[in-house]
User: Which sequence fits this backbone?
């Protein structure tokens, strides 16, 4: 161990307040994992519970000596480079180590200040009423939006998946989603999609065969597992993977692939429903998702939102895309149902916790997707993100959406006359309304 590392490790021990914090009383009573944050843990914040901790106990000096002595026996660790990347489930560590000899301090994200998580700041994106699938009531039928609008929506979603292969993010798949753990099924889908987008006339036949085989293998792999409980992230990954294959197969133009995709429709619908059901159960129980199954590390509110919002958007897109295809094939389709999503501009693009919180304090537009037509005449197009624009397109049609974006752009140009500013929404409008 280097002198510099020893010094920093000793300083860490000296600065420990000689206090060991147990799980809060609410988490202990329900036998749930506690993140041990001050003044309120994540579960109590989510559930709106009063969070209180048992009386703390002093660490005996002999215990501190044990920790100090361990410095010479533990394998060298470059504190400067490695300590940010250690994924430790502290509750699991407590259960296997003798607490009389070693005290584990609660994990804190070095980029997140405790003052950013007050007990009064409820997690607005996991409220119980936000998991209801909405449907149009009697007398509120779907608008006829025309085949051109449907084709533009399909092209928009195809563009998102193309963006995923180049930018590692798109309006359906957040860049934080698979940073720690990328399930094998979504790895296969990513590489197959890359092969498809870069195919040549000479490689087209073999690439299409790969797509067909990967889709079949994906379904078969889970069919042979039997009834198993999947981690939430794997539930999401397999839906996104099958959606990737289905998007290719339905709209490539190959008759064989299209027939295969139609045969997989029930599987995708079933997986989508299971994903939504599992997410609803976990969130209403106050269990925030994890980005890694080994071990599952509690997430900050921002990263939890990244997972939850990816689930919401994926489930909604599966429903819309299947309804769009049925309409293009048969001339009509039932209402796919609506999902509560976050449509406010800028939240999806936030690069860290603090930036996300600042934008979330503005216009979140956390609302039912069936209600997006309310934006027409009431909201500026620039306040809605790209995913929201696509949902509005398939809800109200190309013409009405184009009028809305044109009017919003004109109003903004008047307000910003002489500033030489062009909004990203103008570019989106120009791409999909001309």
Assistant:
């Amino acid at each position: 161990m280097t002198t510099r590392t020893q010094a920093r490790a000793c300083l860490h021990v000296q600065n420990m307040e000689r206090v060991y914090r147990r799980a809060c009383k609410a988490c202990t009573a329900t036998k749930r994992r506690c993140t041990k944050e001050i003044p309120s843990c994540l579960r109590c914040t989510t559930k709106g519970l009063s969070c209180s901790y048992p009386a703390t106990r002093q660490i005996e000096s002999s215990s501190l000596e044990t920790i100090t002595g361990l410095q010479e026996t533990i394998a060298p660790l470059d504190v400067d480079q490695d300590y940010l990347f250690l994924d430790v489930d502290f509750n699991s560590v407590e259960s296997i180590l003798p607490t009389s000899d070693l005290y584990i301090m609660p994990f804190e994200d070095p980029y997140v200040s405790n003052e950013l998580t007050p007990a009064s700041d409820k997690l607005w994106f996991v409220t119980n009423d936000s998991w209801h699938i909405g449907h149009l009531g009697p007398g509120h039928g779907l608008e006829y939006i025309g085949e051109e609008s449907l084709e533009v929506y399909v092209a928009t979603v195809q563009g998102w998946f193309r963006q995923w292969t180049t930018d590692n993010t798109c309006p359906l798949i957040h860049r934080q989603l698979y940073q720690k753990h990328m399930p094998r099924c979504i790895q296969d889908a990513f590489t197959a999609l890359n092969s498809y987008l870069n195919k040549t006339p000479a490689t087209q036949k073999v690439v299409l065969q790969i797509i067909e085989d990967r889709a079949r293998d994906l379904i078969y792999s889970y069919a042979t597992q039997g009834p198993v409980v999947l981690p939430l992230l794997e539930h999401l990954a397999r839906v996104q993977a099958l959606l990737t294959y289905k998007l290719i197969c339905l709209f490539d133009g190959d008759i064989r692939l299209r027939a295969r995709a139609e045969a997989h429709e029930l599987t995708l619908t079933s997986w989508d429903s299971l994903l939504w059901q599992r997410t609803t159960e976990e969130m209403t129980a106050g269990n925030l998702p994890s980005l890694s199954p080994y071990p599952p590390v509690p997430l900050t509110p921002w990263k939890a939102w990244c997972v939850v919002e990816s689930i919401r958007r994926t489930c909604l897109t599966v429903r819309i895309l299947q309804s769009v295809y049925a309409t293009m094939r048969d001339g009509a389709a039932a209402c796919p149902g609506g999902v509560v999503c976050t449509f406010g501009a800028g939240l999806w693009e936030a690069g860290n916790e603090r930036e996300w919180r600042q934008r979330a304090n503005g216009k979140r537009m956390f609302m039912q997707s069936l209600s997006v037509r309310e934006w027409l005449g009431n909201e500026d197009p620039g306040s809605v993100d790209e995913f929201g624009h696509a949902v509005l397109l398939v809800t109200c049609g190309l013409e009405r959406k184009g009028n809305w974006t044109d009017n919003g752009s004109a109003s903004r140009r008047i307000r910003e006359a002489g500033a030489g500013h062009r909004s990203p929404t103008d570019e989106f409008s120009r791409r999909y309304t001309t």
Q: What stands out?
A: Confidence is low (pLDDT under 50) at residues 9-19, 59-121, 417-434. Strands lie at 19-20, 57-58, 340-342, 366-368. Residues 185 and 238 are 6 Å apart (CA to CA). The longest strand covers residues 340-342.
